[in-house]
Amino acid sequence: xxxxxxxxxxxxxxxxxxxxxxRRPPKPPYSHVVQLGDPVLRCKAKIxxxxxxxxxxxxxxxxxxxxxxxxxxxxxxxxxxxxxDLRVMAMTCPDLDQFxxxxxxxxxxxxxxxxxxxxxxxxxxxxxxxxxxxxxGCESMRGFSADVARxxxxxxxxxxxxxxxxSEELSGWLARIAQHELDxxxxxxxxxxxxxxxxTCSFWDRVNRTGGKVHISYYPNKILSK
Length: 226
Hints:
By secondary structure, the protein is an alpha+beta fold.
């Protein structure tokens, strides 16, 4: 009798596992960030038409982008990173008192407070061809960083989410964020232009200290040591 009961439990577990295995994935725009290898990250994103701005699909994309930036505590995101091949990006930068790093790092990177802002069909004009080399990472390649040379000052041009034209001069870390996200809209990753010998696992020291018992989650801000 017990054997039959165990067989029924095992059969039910197998059915559940089979359902989970073939469960349909959520549809874009995702509430998570896709990772390197997803084909959408290598596509040249499409121009957004004015007629799309009032559609439920576009509004959901804008809403999910804001949620992801807040949940992941990142400074920038692009529509392709949420699985949508449209030319939309968003960026922000925290105040010094909200920055997770040191004041020295904040100053070294040329960071400055910047309120969350959506850019539709953005493009840039280089205002200073001098490039600065700093380490940067990407939520679509979690756990790694590398040195990347970026223009120090640019003019960013585009629309807001309502279709109103706007233009801003950006320098330092803000210019870097904008260039990083613009790359995503053209199917490029920072790794494509990085100094590859500088590529680093951001948690290599923790891996050593824990004997390799480190779990990197692809969901917000969870780097767990066992």
